[in-house]
Amino acid sequence: MVDNSNRKVLIAMDGSEYSEEALKWFASKVYKNEDDVIVLHVTDHKESLSYSSPWLPMDPMIFQMKVKEEEDKAKETIKKVDALIKDVGIKAHVIRAHGNPGEQITKKAEELGVSMVIIGSRGLGTIRRTIMGSVSDFVLHHSHIPVVIFRH
Fold first, then answer.
1. Single pTM value for the model
2. What is the pLDDT of residues 84-139, one digit of tens each?
3. Of 47, 83, 52, which is closest to residue 66 (Cα–Cα)?
4. Is residue 2 very low, low, confident or very high in pLDDT (cuts 50, 70, 90)?
5. Exposed/middle/buried for 81, CB within 10 Å: 0-12, 13-18, 19+?
6. Are 15 and 23 in contact (CB under 8 A)?
7. Cβ-contact 11, 38 below 8 angstroms
8. For residue 151, how many other CB atoms are within 10 A of its CB?
9. Measuring CA to CA, how many Å separate 19 from each of 23, 67, 112, 126?
10. Which residues are registered as beta bridge partners of 139?
11. DSSP sequence for 119-142
């Protein structure tokens, strides 16, 4: 029998409706007051870096502007997540990481010693998931910790 009295749960939140629905599901169906809940938001600056190429380097001012836009978006997402945590009535703390979302979620889950990872999924089809990649798919296949993928 597994002792679930002091579960440590990591919920990955990117600000999308899919991650919000995953948090709401967790709060209503799984959450216990004893749970140690960590909400992780990962900021990935690859969009800023994608405006440059070896043939056409990016103006440093444009790069700084793009990074600032992404940082502002991350701060807004974290505010939204904080409000949602209060709305659903759970105790949780929000942390941030920077880099590839799938890799960071997997890494943080192991570093923090969580017993479960919860992540929302957009439900991409096989072809779109293959072309675009899927954070939930990456986490599922690379995590050594149980992963719950919530698909609404």
1. 0.83
2. 999 999 999 999 999 999 999 999 999 999 999 999 987 655 555 444 458 988 99
3. 47
4. low
5. buried
6. no
7. yes
8. 12
9. 6, 23, 20, 20
10. none
11. EE-----HHHHHHH--HHHHHHHH
